[in-house]
Amino acid sequence: MRTTEEATWRDVVAAYVGLTKPRVIELLLLTTVPVMFFAARGVPSLGLVVATVIGGTLSAGSASVFNCVYDRDIDEQMRRTRRRALPRHIVSPRAALVFGTVLAIISTAVLWAFVNPLSAVLSVTANAFYVFVYTMLLKRRTTQNIVWGGIAGCFPALIGWTAVTDSLSWAPVVLFAVVFFWTPPHTWALALRYREDYANVDVPMLPVVKPAREVARQIVAYSWVMVATSLLLWPVAGTGVFYTACAVVLGAVFLVQAHRLLVRSRNTEDLSLIRPMHLFHSSNLYLSLLFVAVALDPLISR
After folding, report:
1. What's the confidence (pLDDT) of residue 2?
2. Side-chain-facing half-sphere of 301: CA atoms under 13 Å
3. Quick one: which of 73, 109, 210, 220 has the fewest CB in 10 Å?
4. How many Cα atoms occupy the beta-carbon half-sphere of 167 within 13 Å?
5. Sign of the C-alpha dihedral, residues 99, 100, 101, 104?
6. How many other CB atoms are there within 10 angstroms of residue 107's CB atom?
7. DSSP code at position 41
8. 131: DSSP letter
9. CB-based contact 295:161 (threshold 8 Å)
10. Residues 110 and 58 sit within 8 Å (Cβ to Cβ)
11. Is the pLDDT of residue 78 over 90?
């Protein structure tokens, strides 16, 4: 294992980038930019999109850095996270804290100056919620950690809308709710795959304390509510046939995947038979395509 002194500059740069969890940022931006197109009812200003993406990227990266600092003790013990920068001692906790703070300050300044104060405030709120409510308060204490802690990941839908309109309305609230109900099936599928890791570090994710069958039941329940919520965008925001058709088809496919997980989990705890990662990957595809439909609908339906 390399220490900070032994690491090359490439190792250090890669470590700092890794602390921001780029794959999580990609998913968050995917629920930001399409909403900007939807709010603009067309193509928003390129400069505004760039400023929102930069500010959102830095803000989400900052929250992830703080999460890595706080969770470094359990990250070192989990197979899925032990290769992160802090467990490998490429970056010190103090340096990571400074890095996260700088990202938070710059992101807030960018959003405030080049987007609008409302978007900046929402970004800071999401960051604080993820760090203080989810990471520090809920994650290690309750099976509902990801249900309520996942609220932080819903804010990009609001920020995408406010970046364009400088106001809130019911349309982004519906999309916020879609992400809210999407988060438990998505995260519990992953947690089911790595439940031994979570159990070893005493993090009470639902798959740790409940049998796979019960986890699958709850995944199915949240999936139905998620799909129903996605269809509310039509009466609330007057979407066209394109979005509505996409929401119906994507929702049906997702529900089939969720029910198949439930069937596979009947009378077994064998993950090779349950195959939870099938649903995890399907959930990524579902959210991606649904928000692409959100972006394209005003362009196609004009």
Report:
1. 46
2. 19
3. 73
4. 4
5. positive
6. 24
7. T
8. I
9. no
10. yes
11. no
| CA torsion, ordered 203, 206, 207, 210, to nearest 10 deg | 120
CA of 257: how far to CAs of 133, 178, 221, 274, in Å? Answer: 31, 17, 13, 12
| Chain-centre distance for alpha carbon 210 | 23
> 302: pLDDT confidence band, cut at 50, 70 and 90?
low
Residue type, 95: A
Residue at token pair 């998505």: 186
CA distances for 71 relative to 39, 219, 257, angstroms:
37, 26, 32
User: Any idea of the CA torsion for 74, 80, 85, 86, to the nearest 10 degrees?
Assistant: 10
CB 265 within 8 A of CB 286: no
Q: Cα separation of 7 and 169, whole Å? A: 49
Q: Please tell me the distance from the alpha carbon of residue 176 to that of residue 229, in angstroms, as a whole number.
A: 10
Half-sphere exposure of 284 (CA within 13 A, CB side): 10
Angle between helices 22-30 and 276-300 (to 10 degrees): 40
pLDDT in tens, 199-244: 999 999 999 999 999 999 999 999 999 999 999 999 999 999 999 9
> How high does pLDDT run on average in the chain?
94
Other beta carbons within 10 angstroms of residue 3's beta carbon come to 9
Contact 76, 52 (CB under 8 A): no
Of 39, 169, 15, residue with least CA distance to 99: 15
pLDDT tens digits for range 143-190: 999 999 999 999 999 999 999 999 999 999 999 999 999 999 999 999
Rounded CA gap, 246 and 34, in Å? 15
Two tokens, residue 148 = 């309520």
Q: Which amino acid is at 87?
A: P
| Cα separation, 301 vs 294, whole angstroms | 11
Indicate the pLDDT class of residue 142, thresholds 50, 70 and 90: very high
Retrieve residue 57's tokens: 């990227």
